[in-house]
Amino acid sequence: xxxxxxxxxxxxxxxxxxxxxxxxxxxxxxxxxxxxxxxxxxxxxxxxxxxxxxxxxxxxxxxxxxxxxxxxxxxxxxxxxxxxxxxxxxxxxxxxxxxxxxxxxxxxxxxxxxxxxxxxxxxxxxxxxxxxxxxxxxxxxxxxxxxxxxxxxxxxxxxxxxxxxxxxxxxxxxxxxxxxxxxxxxxxxxxxxxxxxxxxxxxxxxxxxxxxxxxxxxxxxxxxxxxxxxxxxxxxxxxxxxxxxxxxxxxxxxxxxxxxxxxxxxxxxxxxxx
Length: 274
Prior knowledge:
Elements: E1 2-3, E2 6-10, H1 15-18, E3 25-30, H2 40-43, H3 45-58, E4 61-68, H4 69-86, E5 94-101, E6 109-113, H5 118-127, E7 133-138, H6 147-164, E8 168-173, H7 180-186, H8 193-207, E9 214-220, H9 237-240, E10 244-245, E11 248-253, H10 259-267
Parallel strand pairs: 4-5, 6-7, 6-9, 7-8, 9-11
Antiparallel strand pairs: 1-2, 2-3, 3-8, 10-11
Helix pairs in contact: 3-4, 3-8, 5-10
């Protein structure tokens, strides 16, 4: 259901899946999204990204009326990568799409997932000459129902964007209304479900409707890592760089830098710490 700049999805969850969700209704509210002009196959990226990892792990099926073709091809790759992460704990679920749609935004700008923390600020400094559009998601680190705190952080991010002379777009969602303890236990992840398997696809899916003038989205790495090590989480270059939709690519930024190197970079650029 679409209303102004908010979309609400209601899932029909089989009994097998209900225990993994705190609700069957998810929402995403946007600023500067122009949802009425965005094809349904792009909007469907959002709810698909919420549940795809759970669908693959549980052996269930997800039916989607229409979906962006590029994103669907990414899902084929991500399913294989998740199998490498989970091994025999994955039950080979599937996503069935009624109609695949080819989309092209023909954007020319760079986007950056931005929280204002060390990693995303370091990525901003590394790419500031391209004036990246910042995407801030409320509902990930700060719960969507924490209104005062959420608004306070949004104001801080908006102030940062204005001082840097860049644009910012906001998303608010209940994407973390998942039973992460149950997911971690049942699928034997050594870390919590969110950080090991859930968050990368959900975050990128959430910003997809905001990328109508973008050709690349950057996601800041949290640790230094090599492309040569076997895949063990959704936060590695092999996984992140496999995600795309329409003509928008995604890249993990800063995986060549240790956290201390990023802190040194910020210390050398104190104006970004205000």
